[in-house]
Amino acid sequence: MTRPRVLAILLTVGAPAPLTAALSPWAPLLLLVATLAVYATVAASAAQRPAAIGLFTLCYQLGGAFGPAVAAMVALRG
């Protein structure tokens, strides 16, 4: 794909994100978590910063992996 096409797709898919965050009941919690993640990476020393960012990324990806599985289990039990 060409660069302009990728940019157009990303903008189209990402445009509803602020609206979703504004209408979601979890928006304040997500804002708090994002703020803490930024604070943690800034507060880490230069030598530890890559590890701090890596751990945040790992937690983010694990949340994306396990979150739907846990939601499906809760939905099936309920």
The average pLDDT is: 81
Summarize the biggest pleated sheet: none
Low-confidence segments: none
Kindly, what is the distance between the CA atoms of the first and last residues, rounded to a whole number of angstroms?
A: 43 Å
Total discrete domains: 1
Rg result: 17 Å
What best-fitting shape do the alpha-carbon axes yield?
extended
Strands, count: 0
Q: How is this structure best described in words?
A:
With 78 residues, the protein is mostly helical. The chain has one domain (3-77). Helix content is 83%, strand content 0%. It is built from 4 helices and no strands. Helix 3 packs antiparallel against helix 4. The longest helix is centred in the C-terminal third of the chain and has 29 residues, at 49-77. The protein starts with a helix and ends with a helix.
Features:
single chain; 78 residues; mainly alpha; 4 helices; 83% helix; extended
Quick recap:
This protein has 78 residues and is an all-alpha fold.
Question: Which helices and strands, and how do they pair?
Answer:
Layout: H1 3-14, H2 17-23, H3 27-43, H4 49-77
Helix pairs in contact: 3-4
